[in-house]
Amino acid sequence: MIQFCCIAKWTFVLLEMGLLSLTALAQEITVYGAIRELWGKLGWDGGKLGFPTSDEYDAPVDGVNGKRQDFEKGYIVWTPKKGARETISATM
Question: Lower CB count within 10 Å: N or C terminus of the chain?
Answer without folding.
Answer: N
